[in-house]
Each structure stands twice: as structure tokens, then as C-alpha cells.
Amino acid sequence: xxxxxxxxxxxxxxxxxxxxxxxxxxxxxxxxxxxxxxxxxxxxxxxxxxxxxxxxxxxxxxxxxxxxxxxxxxxxxxxxxx
Length: 82
Hints:
Helix content: over 70%
Distance between the termini: 30 Å
Number of strands: 0
Structural class: mainly alpha
Largest sheet: none
Number of helices: 5
Strand content: under 5%
Order of helices and strands: HHHHH
Mean pLDDT: 95
Radius of gyration: 12 Å
């Protein structure tokens, strides 16, 4: 069900699927690369928690090359939303 919501463009569903991949769960193997993919989809739609999580991925180098510039970008997007 969650994948159909992701395919329909639901930012919240993309965030949730990213979280499941980040930690592993619901039958999904942990994959930081997949987590980043779904966080990116959600962050691009303005989902604040996805922006924070994506910033953390860039800050820590989880699933992406470490980039403090990219981390700051996503943290700022989230902060601008309060």
C-alpha cells in the first residue's frame, strides 16, 4: 500500500518508505542509498522531516558522499519552514 502512495506522489509516503529503508523494517533490508532516494523525493516536495533526514545523510555521508554544503542546504530548507 505504501508503494502505491509513493507512486502517486505522496510526500509523506516517500518519507515513511525512506525511514523504513534507513533503519530496515517491514520486510525491507536496511539501505541508506534507498533511504536517500525516497527522502530526496519527499524533500523535493517540501516535506520538512525528509529535508532534515536528507541533511543528516549528507552530514554523515550515509548513502551519499559526505557534503557539508548539501547538508546545510537541506537543513536551511527545513529551518525556513520553522
